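User: quick one
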Amino acid sequence: MAAAKKSVTKETGQEKGQEKASGAGSPPDFTREQELRALRDMLLIRRFEEKAGQLYGMGAIGGFCHLYIGQEAIVVGMQMALKQGDQVITGYRDHGHMLACGMEANGVMAELTGRQGGYSKGKGGSMHMFSKEKNFFGGHGIVGAQVSLGTGLAFANRYRGNDFVSLAYFGDGASNQGQVYESFNMAELWKLPVIYIIENNRYAMGTSVSRASAQTDFSKRGISFNIPGEQVDGMDVRAVKAAGDKAVAWCRAGKGPFILEMQTYRYRGHSMSDPAKYRTREEVDKVRHDQDPIEQVRNRLLAAKVSEQELKAIDAEVREIVNASADFAQKDPEPDASELYTDIYR
Ligand SMILES: Cc1ncc(C[n+]2csc(CCOP(=O)(O)OP(=O)(O)O)c2C)c(N)n1
Ligand SMILES: [Mg+2]
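Assistant: Done. Structure below.
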């Protein structure tokens, strides 16, 4: 019955909105250089987030702090599919996105501790950092806000006639927000070059996807707008990169928006103040053990005879950057009281 109603895309011959993940079957292999880069960039995020968690525990970081641990393959894989000038925007779970965009660990950590060397001069904190130079547009605490803003970035690219693509990252919970669908409609209508990346980590705060979403296949959320979508193994950086390549090519060719549902998991609580009573320790341990994105790359590199020593050197380089950032973030002065009156609308 359903088959009679299915629409088929002209370009691919597949059902619109239901193109199967590049995750179906094995994704293309990475070169050794790509594996090493992916490992290094994911490790930087992992170690940075662990350190931020420690500093939070010590009371050096105040306010909200949402860690990205477990989800690293998404932002690292997508970044490998971009070119200089493409833009990124996300929500509050944003430290990983900033580091992947090439923002300095020192500036991000110092913003977390509220110091003047932070990206927002210590006045924004974890959820409010930006870098125009690195094409990172925040850092947004309002769930779903980045979706319409990211669509606006794509509109600007279209208007200016360049071929840049904007990436709007948001969660499974945010996917149920009204403005998401207003954005989908305009993006497809005007063929805007935006990739909607739904980071489905199975929970929105303490609410599991199945309790909150009528349609739990998020790749289908664009069907009524004719936006194609794919489900992707968001724990495998190669699958993410392959899906990213395809979506980026779609956008750059002027075909409009694309949806990627990244299936992933967050290891830590929603924020630092979440006791995580809505899931079991076993559930978390199983994902860590079976699917960890960093371990996957490390194991492949070891199987390809990359020496332990080379891997240890990457680890050491990353730890040095992270330790230095923690040092800087604790020693750098707090902003002067006069800063209260700058960078504000009057
Ligand atoms: C408009 C709005 N509603 C509610 C909140 C409170 N809130 C913060 S995070 C969150 C859950 C979002 O979950 P999801 O989109 O799955 O992202 P994740 O935290 O899993 O990365 C909610 C409801 C908010 N910040 N903004
Ligand atoms: Mg979520």
